[in-house]
Each structure stands twice: as structure tokens, then as C-alpha cells.
Amino acid sequence: MTNNLKYFIGNWKMFGNHSSLKIVYQIHQFCKKFKKQGKKNKIVLCVPNTLISFFSKKLKSKIVYIGGQNCHHQENFGPYTGSVSATMLKNSGAKYVILGHSENRAEGETKQMIKNKIQSAMNQKLNIIFCIGETLGEKKSGKTYSVIRNQIRGSIKRKAFFKKIIIAYEPVWSIGSGKIPQTIELKKIFKFIKNEIRKKYNTKNIPAVLYGGSVSTKNIKVFSLIPEIDGFLIGGASQSSKKFIDIIKNYYK
Ligand code: PGA
Fold first, then answer.
1. Looking at residue 198, which CATH number applies to its domain?
2. Catalytic one among 72, 101, 109, 134?
3. Are the beta carbons of 144 and 109 closer than 8 angstroms?
4. Does a structural domain hold residue 1?
5. Which residue has a Cα nearest atom 7 of ligand 1?
């Protein structure tokens, strides 16, 4: 990313009901005012499927976007109990979808399945937040770079996909744990991801690469000093409008 556009993406996980609309409205109100200060950012809230349609109908302006957190690899309808396709997400009003989150990989989601999901989401013109990251065991055995390289190569077919893909580097050991990588490590990993995409796909369209894992109102300042980071995928802290807003405020402080 050569411009200064920063992403703040909330991943609500299994959280929220209709009354959570007030959280969405508070974030929306803040971002509306904040936008006037000339900061270039994209705000997305990835919420449970049960809330996508409700929230998207309430939010008419293009200040906060609503996304889903996963989709089935079959694009339309099919005999998949409990699943939702990319077409269904799109029709509910989602503009984004998180794919390859480690919580889903841990449930058996394979690189091939993610590849198919990415294809379905691409066909539906959804923006994709593609999650990658190593486990603690992989980190300890020095496999971080090979793991993330394989995750990218195993699921992204063509360079054209990068027009709609945002990468979220989320070390699994950092998610929900309060632990974050060292700045020096992060700089190296972000450079590696961008170089890897440049070389392997022979493209100049390098996607935005976000950081995710225990992002908080306190540690955001540390991340803001790392220019390689194009934004954040925020889990727990995005379930509170105050925390999510304070993360954005503190980032620019
Ligand atoms: P966390 O989650 O911010 O609660 O660590 C991040 C994520 O899982 O996307």
C-alpha cells in the first residue's frame, strides 16, 4: 500500500443481538465526525450472519461497512446444514467476508476449502479478509515464514484476486491471549508477506496487510509506529464501541 489508507476491521465472532445496533451507531457517529478530519480509513464490522441484513439496512451511508465472518465454499444453495454461501452473504448486504480465520482452520477448514471459498466470494464481488498466521508450536520450531507462505500459496490462485483481498496476519498464539509479537518481528513478517506476493504472483498490486491478535486501546500506539501495517483486525475489543473508537483515536494520537 503506497497510500495512507488504514483499515479498522472488527471481528465480533459469536457476539451480538439486535440491541447491539447501538454499538454500530456509536461507531458510525464517531467515524462520521472523524472523517471530517481528513484521515483516510475504512471501517468494517464483521458480525454474525443473523445481524448482517438488519445492520446493513440501518446503515445507509458509506462510513461503516458490514461484513460476514465466513462462508461455505459452495457458492449458491446446497445440502449443507447450518451453512451460508457467499451469494447469501452478499444478498444480506455484506460487503466483506473474513476467510481462513484460525478458529475455523482449527475446526478442520483446509487450504483447499479456503481456496474455494475465496473463489466463491470473488465471484460475488465481496471484499475478502484472508487470515494467515502460525501457531505457537510452529513459531517455536522456526516455521513462521514457511507456514504463512504455504497458507498464501495454498489458497490464492491468481494475482487478479489481490484487487479484492486484504491479508490479515494473525499469529494464532496472539489471538485473545493479550500477547503480541515484537515490533522487529512484525516488521520482518510484514515485509516478507508483501515481498512474497510481489515475487510469487509477479504483481505490483500489493494488498493491504493487517495485523490481528489482542489489539487493544493500550497497545495500538506500538502498532501505529510500524508503517508496514495497513490496519487491524480487532476481535474482543471490537465488541465495545468505546474500545473500538479509542483504538482508532489512539492510533492517530
Ligand atoms: P482478538 O481476536 O483481538 O480478540 O485477539 C482477533 C481475531 O480473532 O480476529
1. 3.20.20.70
2. 101
3. no
4. no
5. 235
